[in-house]
Write a structure and sequence with these properties.
The complex is a heterotrimer of chains A (150), B (118) and C (331). With 150 residues, chain A is an all-alpha fold. Chain A has two domains: 101 residues, no CATH class; 30 residues. Chain A is built from eight helices and no strands. The radius of gyration of chain A is 21 Å and the shape is extended. By secondary structure, chain B is mainly α. The longest helix of chain B has 28 residues. Chain C folds into two domains: 167 residues, Stage V sporulation protein AD (Peroxisomal Thiolase, Chain A, domain 1), CATH 3.40.47; 153 residues, Peroxisomal Thiolase, Chain A, domain 1 (3-Layer(aba) Sandwich). Chain C contains ten helices and 13 strands. In chain C, helix 3 links the parallel strand 3 and strand 4. The mean pLDDT of chain C is 95. Classes of the chains: A mainly alpha (150), B mainly alpha (118), C alpha/beta (331). At the A-B interface, helix 2, helix 3, helix 5, helix 6 and helix 7 of A face helix 1, helix 2, helix 4, helix 5 and helix 6 of B.
C-alpha cells in the first residue's frame, strides 16, 4: 500500500466520529454543578453548626470524599461517570474515585503490594505536581514577601 | 443565591474540563494535573480567592480549588515558619482530603469487590 | 505463492464451541453460543482466573462436541490478552494437551487456527486445536483502569468481549475445510490513539487481504462473506477504503466480528467489540455454524490485532497492527 502516514491520518480523521461535544458538556455541567451545589449545601450546614469557615470547607471535602467512596464501592460512580465525563472527574469526588477504585481493584494482589502500592496509581500525579507547584509558589512567595512590603 | 452560583461556577469549571477532553488529545490524568497546577497558579496570582468567595463550593470542590487550597496553605505556612513553610504548607492544607481518600480507599478495599461493568 | 499457503490435503473442522458473558448474552449472536454465563466471575476470585475458567469450559465443550477427550488432540495453539498469556497457561495446566502459547492480541484466533491448519495439513498433527479468549474485566484492569474508576469512553473506543472460542481441526472429515492461510505482515501507519485501535489495525487487514487476493488470483465474488476481526465501525470503514484504493472492492460481502457480536444501537460498546475472544466467539457461534448448515459455502476469516502494550503507548510509540487470514470452504 502506497500511503503516507499523513494521508492515513486524514482518512482516519474523516472516518472517526467526533465526541458529541454539546451533549458531553451538558452532562458535565449539570452533574458537576450538582456535586458543587451539594458541596455548598454541606458547607453552609457545617457553618450553621458552628464550624469556622476552613473547618467547614475541610469537612465538606471529607463528606464528599466519603460519599464518592460509597458510590464507587457500589459501582455507581463509574456508571454515572460513563455519561457525566468531566462532571464527575473534576470535582473532589473524582479524586476520591481515583483513589478508591484501584484500592478495590488491586485488593486481590494483597494489602501491601496491591492496595498499598496501587492506591495512588491514578491520583498520584495530581498530588506530585500539585505539591511541586505549591512548593515552588512557597519559595517564590518567601522571596517576594519583603518586596510586597510585608 | 450562593447556591445558584456554586452550581453554575462548578458546572462551568467541569465544562472546561470536558472541552479539554473532547477537543484536545489530553488524557484525563493530564487534565487533572493541569487543573491542580492551574489552581496553584491562579491562587498565587490572587485571582482564585475572589472566585472562591463568590462561588463558594462551586470554586473549592473542583480540583482547581484543591490547587487553591495548596497555595493558600503554603502562604500561611511561609508567614509562620519562613522558608520551611514552603515544604510543609501544601501537604498540611491538603491533609484532610488526601487522608480521607486514603482511609476510604482502605475501607472500600476491605468491604467491596471488583465488579463487572455490564 | 507469496505470503499465502495453499493446502492440498486441507484440515477439516471437526468441532467447535463458544462461551460468552453477560453482554454477549444480550447481544444479537446469543443463540449461537454454546454457553452464556451472566455471572462473569465464572465463580472465581480473580478476573484472571475467571478468564481461565471460561477458556477451560470452552475447551471442554469443543472436545465434547467432537466426541473426544483431551488425549485425542495432538497439539493446541492458544492465547489471550493477559500479560504472559496467563489465562491460556492456567487453562492448559489443567487440560494437559501439548501447548503452543501465542500472542497476536485480537488476531490470535486466526493465528492459532492458521497454525493448526498448517500442522494438520502438513501431516504433523492428526488433530490440532485453536483456542483463545478475552475477558473485559481482566483486560480493563491490565490495559486501562480499575473497573470502578469513572471514565468516559470515546466514540472510537472498542469494548473487550468476555468470550472464548475453540476449534478442533482434524486430518480427515467432511469439512468445512481450511483451504489456505495468509500470515500477515506487521503494518503501522502511525496511529497512536489506543482508543482507536480499529484505525490502527485497518491497514494490516487491508494488507493481508490484498496479499491473499494477489497470491490466490481469486475474485472477491467467489466468496460469500469476508469476516474481519474486531475492526469495529471506524476500522471497517478504513479497511474498505484502503482496499478500494488498490482496486479491491469488498463492501458487499464484508462483515466485521466486532460489529456482529453486539448491537451498537442498544448496547454501549463504542465502535464495536474487540479482544482475542471476540473474533473467536463470532467464528464459533456464527460463522462455522452457517458453514456447517450450508448457508455459507466459502468465507475468509481475517482477524486483526493491535500489537502495542501500555508501556509502548505511554512512550508515544505508534500502534503496529497485524492480520492473519484463513480461507474456510465447504468444498
Amino acid at each position: 500500500m502506497k500511503l503516507s502516514k499523513q494521508e492515513y491520518d486524514r482518512m482516519n480523521r474523516q472516518a472517526s466520529p467526533p465526541s458529541p461535544v454539546a451533549k458531553d458538556c451538558l452532562w458535565a455541567f449539570f452533574v458537576g454543578g450538582a456535586i458543587c451545589l451539594l458541596g455548598e449545601v454541606l458547607r453552609t450546614a457545617y457553618g450553621r453548626a458552628g464550624f469556622i469557615l476552613t473547618d467547614a470547607s475541610a469537612l465538606t471535602s471529607i463528606t464528599l470524599v466519603a460519599l464518592s467512596a460509597v458510590l464507587t464501592a457500589l459501582g455507581w460512580y463509574q456508571k454515572l461517570a460513563s455519561r457525566a465525563g468531566a462532571g464527575t472527574l473534576v470535582p473532589i469526588t473524582g479524586f476520591a474515585n481515583a483513589v478508591v477504585s484501584p484500592a478495590i481493584e488491586y485488593r486481590v494482589e494483597g494489602l501491601v503490594t496491591g492496595v498499598g502500592a496501587k492506591m495512588f496509581v491514578i491520583a498520584g500525579p495530581v498530588i506530585v505536581w500539585g505539591m511541586m507547584a505549591s512548593v515552588v509558589w512557597g519559595v517564590v512567595y518567601y522571596f517576594l514577601r519583603p518586596m510586597m512590603g510585608g | 443565591m450562593h447556591y445558584f452560583w456554586a452550581f453554575v461556577v462548578g458546572g462551568a469549571l467541569c465544562v472546561i474540563g470536558q472541552l479539554l477532553i473532547d477537543l484536545t488529545a489530553l488524557t484525563p490524568a493530564r487534565i487533572l494535573v493541569l487543573f491542580v497546577v492551574s489552581g496553584v497558579a491562579l491562587s498565587a496570582l490572587g485571582w482564585y480567592r475572589p472566585l472562591a468567595e463568590f462561588a463558594g463550593a462551586g470554586a473549592t470542590v473542583p480540583l482547581l480549588g484543591f490547587g487553591h487550597l495548596l497555595a493558600q496553605g503554603v502562604v500561611a505556612a511561609v508567614e509562620r515558619h519562613g522558608l520551611l513553610g514552603a515544604l510543609t504548607g501544601g501537604f498540611s492544607a491538603a491533609a484532610g482530603g488526601i487522608a480521607a481518600s486514603l482511609v476510604c480507599g482502605v475501607a472500600a478495599s476491605l468491604a467491596a469487590r471488583s465488579k463487572d461493568q455490564c | 505463492m507469496g505470503d499465502t499457503l495453499f493446502f492440498e490435503r486441507p484440515a477439516s473442522v471437526m468441532g467447535y464451541a463458544s462461551v460468552g458473558g453477560k453482554r454477549e448474552a444480550e447481544g444479537p449472536l446469543a443463540e449461537g453460543f454454546d454457553l452464556l454465563e451472566t455471572d462473569t466471575t465464572f465463580g472465581e476470585k480473580t478476573w484472571e482466573q475467571s478468564e481461565s475458567r471460561m477458556q477451560t469450559l470452552c475447551a471442554e465443550l469443543a472436545l465434547r462436541r467432537c466426541g473426544i477427550d483431551a488425549a485425542g488432540v495432538d497439539l493446541l495453539f492458544g492465547g489471550d490478552l493477559e500479560n504472559q498469556c496467563t489465562a491460556s497457561n492456567y487453562t492448559m495446566r489443567g487440560l494437559g494437551i501439548p501447548f503452543v502459547g501465542l500472542y497476536s492480541a485480537c488476531a490470535t484466533m486466526a493465528e492459532g487456527l492458521a497454525l493448526a491448519a498448517c500442522f494438520v495439513a502438513g501431516g504433523l498433527a492428526r488433530r490440532a486445536m485453536a483456542l483463545t479468549s478475552s475477558h473485559f474485566c481482566a483486560a480493563e484492569r491490565q490495559f486501562r483502569f480499575p473497573l470502578e474508576y469513572g471514565g468516559k469512553r470515546t466514540p472510537t473506543s472498542q469494548w473487550t468481549a468476555t468470550a472464548a472460542g475453540g476449534v478442533v481441526l482434524s486430518a480427515d472429515g467432511a469439512g468445512p475445510y481450511l483451504r489456505a492461510v495468509t500470515f500477515g505482515r506487521v503494518t503501522d501507519l502511525g496511529i497512536k490513539d489506543t482508543n482507536n485501535m480499529g484505525a490502527a489495525m485497518a491497514p494490516a487487514a487491508a494488507s493481508t487481504l490484498l496479499a491473499y487476493f494477489r497470491d490466490s488470483g481469486r475474485d472477491p465474488e467467489e466468496f460469500d462473506r469476508i469476516y474481519t476481526g474486531d475492526l469495529g465501525a471506524v476500522g471497517s470503514a478504513l479497511a474498505m477504503q484502503l482496499c478500494e484504493r488498490e482496486g479491491l472492492r469488498l463492501e458487499k460481502i464484508h462483515e466485521d466480528c466486532g460489529l456482529l457480536l453486539y448491537d451498537r444501537g442498544r448496547q454501549q460498546v463504542g465502535a464495536g467489540g474487540s479482544g482475542a475472544g471476540c473474533s473467536a466467539a463470532v467464528l464459533c457461534s456464527h460463522i462455522l455454524p452457517q458453514l456447517k448448515a450450508g448457508a455459507l459455502q466459502r468465507v475468509l476469516f481475517v482477524a486483526t490485532g493491535a500489537l502495542m502494550s501500555p508501556t509502548t503507548a505511554l512512550q508515544k510509540e505508534s500502534i503496529p497492527g497485524i492480520a492473519h487470514l484463513v480461507a474456510i470452504e465447504n468444498a
